[in-house]
Amino acid sequence: MEDVSLAEDIEIHTLLQLLALFTFYKATLLHSGTPLGSMHQLIPHASAVIPIGSPVSESFYPILAVFLLTVGLVSTASFFIYEVTTSKFNRSLGREIATGGLASLFLGFGSLFLLLWTGVYV
């Protein structure tokens, strides 16, 4: 019973968004003096649309994935070695955060490029 209510709420929310969008376009057209019949002028022509491309060439995906994951795994290993070999009283919070953050950053971007390399476009 809750699924039906949730679906109805989503439909109502979507309809309200569409109504708000139409009201905005109508107000914009009336304010600009454009008749409502020429609303198709707001939609860009297919030749005017510029496709979105990746800022990184696809040929660099494997290189970036391997490099970033390697650096991330080395940073992770360094973090674990530091945690195991240093006593509780001699640890530095700044070093832990820096090493963990560096490992997280490299592993995150390495995973992203690994997914892109395998064809999972996220």
TrEMBL record:
UniProt keyword list: Membrane, Transmembrane, Transmembrane helix
Gene Ontology CC: oligosaccharyltransferase complex
Transmembrane segments: 60-85, 97-120
Biological processes, Gene Ontology terms: protein N-linked glycosylation
Subcellular location: Membrane
Quaternary structure (record): Component of the oligosaccharyltransferase (OST) complex.
Main function: Subunit of the oligosaccharyl transferase (OST) complex that catalyzes the initial transfer of a defined glycan (Glc(3)Man(9)GlcNAc(2) in eukaryotes) from the lipid carrier dolichol-pyrophosphate to an asparagine residue within an Asn-X-Ser/Thr consensus motif in nascent polypeptide chains, the first step in protein N-glycosylation. N-glycosylation occurs cotranslationally and the complex associates with the Sec61 complex at the channel-forming translocon complex that mediates protein translocation across the endoplasmic reticulum (ER). All subunits are required for a maximal enzyme activity.
Stated family: Belongs to the OST5 family.
Protein name: Dolichyl-diphosphooligosaccharide-protein glycosyltransferase subunit OST5
Organism: Marchantia polymorpha subsp. ruderalis
